[in-house]
Design a protein that fits this description.
By secondary structure, this protein is α+β, with helices and mostly antiparallel strands. The protein has 23 helices and 19 strands. Helix 14 runs antiparallel to helix 20. The N and C termini lie far apart (about 170 Å).
Length: about 650
Amino acid sequence: MSGRTSPARADGTPDGGAVLRMEHFRFTAADVMTPGQRLTRGRLRIAGLIFSGLFALVALKLADATVIEPMKPKPVAAMRRPEPPPPAMPGGETPAAAVDFAILNARATITDRNGEILAISLPTASVVANPAKLIDADEATDKLLTVLPQLDGADVRRRLHEENRQFVYIARQITPAQQIAINALGIPGIEFEHTERRRYPLGTVAAHVLGGVDVDGKGIAGVEKFFDARLRADPSPLKLSLDVRVQAVVRDELLKAMTEFQAIGACGIVMDVRTGEVIALVSLPDYDANLVGKASDDERFNRAVQGNYEPGSTFKLQDAALALDSGTVQIWNGFDATSPIHIGRFTINDFEGKHRWLYLPEILAYSSNIGAAKMAEAVGPEKQRAWMERMGMLAPLGIELPEARTPSAPSAANWKEIATLTIGFGHGIAVSPLHVVAGTAAIANGGTYYRPTILAHDADAPPRGGIRLMQQSTSDTVRKLMRLVVTDGFGKSAEVPGYYVGGKTGTAEKISGHGYNKNSRVSAFMSAFPMNAPRYAVYMMLDEPKADASTHGYATAGWVSAPAAGRVIARIGPMLGLLPDIEDAATINAQLYIPLQPGHPPNARGNLPPGAASVPVAGQPHPLATTPAAAPTPVRSDPSAPQTVAVR
């Protein structure tokens, strides 16, 4: 053998070549666990299975209640207390037992026609006390003043010392932070009453329409007062016909004109002539509806429905419609306006009159008082009064605003010759601006009168009912006359290319002392557009405007109100889905054209000027038929200011 050591020996194995073997042993938990431990493990397994089952049941129940068949909330009615609220205490105060009434009966929201929120009620709290439960009234008062320093401490002490009372109001509509601070004071006998606070997010927007509520949440003006019961009982929103976008535009332009001409007040109205819905109603000065209690009488005065004014020459549209519809005159007839009308001690004259015979279109375009008075005289007092009655000019409008007034007009017994003449050009009768708008809308829409409304008309509901007052042909003719006032008369500054505006100026002197004051007037422009298919009526009025250099010393409607109406129409047209139509201008102008001096057909009767030509009506020339409408030009003066002057 060699001298090398064998591997076995080197590893320390026994001599002789025998090799030791390594064996591996596996022990299980059961092999090392005692019988007691095995029993515990079994019990744990059973408990785990039980808890897993319980958690599975809870998960299934949650899934059923929230996903598969979610629970519906209980109706508010079911949450209300079954017993009636406790009777009021002396002084009109309500026991704290009725504290949750306001929360469960929140006043309904008011929105515009597009869903914009105009009025909403927010939950608040009032601090109330039960003097009989107070330990120390003076100490309670001192603590309350640390949170509500605006309180009258002496008054609070006096009322808290009246131990015979069980309910005393301390403060109304406090903030949540104040409620937390007072609650932390821990004063026995001091509690909280859940109330609500009416908020008007848009402030002055539509303030005269909305009105306002008192400290108890009761409506005191506007739709808040008119629909007070409905707003308390029905939680669904009350949708008004107003469009806040249009409302804002009218207010903006009205305020600019009022400021420029230093007027004491102003009024603007937009109405849908097809439904009677009031789209905008603005009266200036106005107020923040959130601060209605701090508004002055002048700010709360709603000139649109509460103010009665002599409408002036805007009433000549009524005069013309009546004369045409009754068959008293035809479009080619006219009246001699050469000389003033003398009746008793009064004289009726024209402002910068033409001093000649005037055709019917000229009477409207040049706003002749003499011509309008003679036209009314031809119709007669009986027909005139009956017409005014059908037009709603002798009664309240019936709109949902409690401030609406009854017009001032002569009684049937006193509707004599002088009344007939002056009412023909808008004097001797006083109506609200909304009366004028509603009556003009009936003339423009084809002859149907719709009662004005401040409520939105549901598009899916049947059309609103109206009363037909005149023939379609009469409406068609007067619409052309309204267009003529803007294209050839004294309403040129209201023209808006593509909207075919029609209208009538009206400047009425206000009564002051024993007669009319020539330096105090109401200047209004009554318009509608587009005259080929009227959709909206627009009325703009300034109360006692002052002339300036830009108006060359005039403060009449053609200078101060008509331009504002034109700006409103240009801005609201696209908002209301009406785009200007320039391409069809020639065709539309031809359809609306009526000459200032129409020729009369052969054998025509009635008032005809001396030497008037006999021209077939169907053959009247249409000078605008082949040329686009001319751009509006400044007017030198506005003869719309009526002059009923007493002869002295």
